[in-house]
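Side project, low priority. Logging it here so it doesn't get lost.
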Amino acid sequence: MKLTPQEYDAMIQKTVPPTQSGRTIPAAFLVGGLICVLGQGLTDLYLLFLPQQQASTLASVTLVFLSALFTGLGLYPKLAKFAGAGTLVPITGFSNSVTSPALEFKSEGFVLGLGAKLFTLSGPVIAYGVITSVIYGVIYYFTGLGG
């Protein structure tokens, strides 16, 4: 069965539901904003007891922990289904992307399941970030801009 591009597009349009941008964009904005407000609230709370750098770090760690906890409890995927990109963009989305594969493959054991699949989704992002920062640092150093 050979399809033309127009026939293929028509077939896809029949099977894929249309995006409900009128609902998804405000939901993403609202939930993403609330996650950021929570982060700011945690930072302000921690500032009562800690210096700025430590308060900011602890707020980030708290958001990562809460995201992993809610992923494990099955609540974060429900929120992500409602809010879409609003849950993917903040640091909580990264935590979810690490926790989800770990939970999915935990039945295969700690080494072959959890250990091997833990960074399935986020591993390439981490690798890209590390490699890019090293290359940038080397260029920065050898161009004399590093001081």
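Brief comment: The chain is about 75% helix and 0% strand.
Revisit when time allows.
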